[in-house]
Design brief:
About 45% of the residues lie in helices and about 15% in strands. By secondary structure, it is of the alpha/beta class. It has one domain: Metal-dependent hydrolases (TIM Barrel, Alpha-Beta Barrel), CATH 3.20.20.140. α7 links the parallel β6 and β7. α4 runs parallel beside α5. The N and C termini lie close together (about 10 Å). The mean pLDDT is about 95. The chain binds manganese (II) ion.
């Protein structure tokens, strides 16, 4: 299967997991939360050809990692995939929004300067602003909105911008998540887990659990699970033809 957004480096036993992830998933997008983590993770994960590491600076750690902003921008050139980046406007992180904005705008602008990147994007509580920033940089590449939870209006705007969406089992457990997913075009969706942060029955979702979404999405879209599964592979090949 495909997991287009997980924090593979943050599982307690990440190193032991790698061979099984490599075997069970045809593609795992291992997002990182800081440029230094990107460099270290890229070295360790290099032997695994089905695991792809993204360059990120997570908005929740904007304050702690702001000193790595120059490194983030400098590394875009060598990064095929970018993520996790974005903005978080929820109560817990709102106080760092000005710093988050500076970081997000800088990395999106650099993606545009480097000819565009596939970007896995966090937008919780700041959906409209994330989309406004992306709209300012139309050559930044393809945004993949991870676990999107914006309003109907935000969703329309995102689709208008050409955004893709990654959808996981945890998102689809909530009726609000299913409501959003039901409206997505099957050609613009990829599975994700957001593990180990996203849980199932109190345990972290594993990268291969992303495949669970195919049945639920099939129900929402009126398609057989197998058709959805095939569509996800087609989508992957469309979005990242050189990696899939
Ligand atoms: Mn995440």
């Amino acid at each position: 299967m495909i997991d287009f957004h997980c924090h593979l480096d943050l599982y307690p036993n990440a190193l032991e997991l790698l061979p099984e992830v490599e075997r069970r998933n045809r593609f795992t997008f291992a997002v990182t939360t800081s440029p230094r983590a990107f460099l270290a993770t890229s070295r360790v994960f290099a032997p695994y050809r089905h695991i792809h590491v993204g360059l990120g600076l997570h908005p929740e750690v904007a304050q702690a990692k702001a000193g790595e902003l120059d490194q983030l921008v400098a590394l875009v050139r060598q990064a095929t995939l970018v993520g996790e980046i974005g903005l978080d406007g929820t109560a817990r992180f709102r106080h760092t929004l000005s710093l988050q904005r500076k970081i997000f705008s800088a990395v999106v602008a650099e993606c545009a300067a480097q000819g565009g990147r596939v970007m896995s994007i966090h937008s919780r509580g700041a959906e409209a602003e994330v989309l406004a920033t992306l709209a300012l940089h139309p050559n930044a590449g393809t945004p993949v909105l991870h676990w999107f939870s914006g309003s109907q209006r935000d969703l329309s705007k995102a689709v208008e911008l050409g955004a893709w969406f990654s959808v996981g089992p945890a998102m689809l457990r909530a009726s609000s998540g299913r409501q959003i997913a039901s409206q997505l075009s099957p050609e613009r969706v990829l599975p994700e887990t957001d593990g180990p942060f996203a849980l199932h029955q109190g345990r972290p979702l594993m990268p291969w659990d992303a495949s669970e979404v195919c049945g639920t999405l099939g129900g929402l879209w009126g398609l057989p699970e197998e058709t959805v599964r095939e569509q996800m592979v087609t989508n992957l090949q469309t979005l990242v033809p050189t990696l899939a």
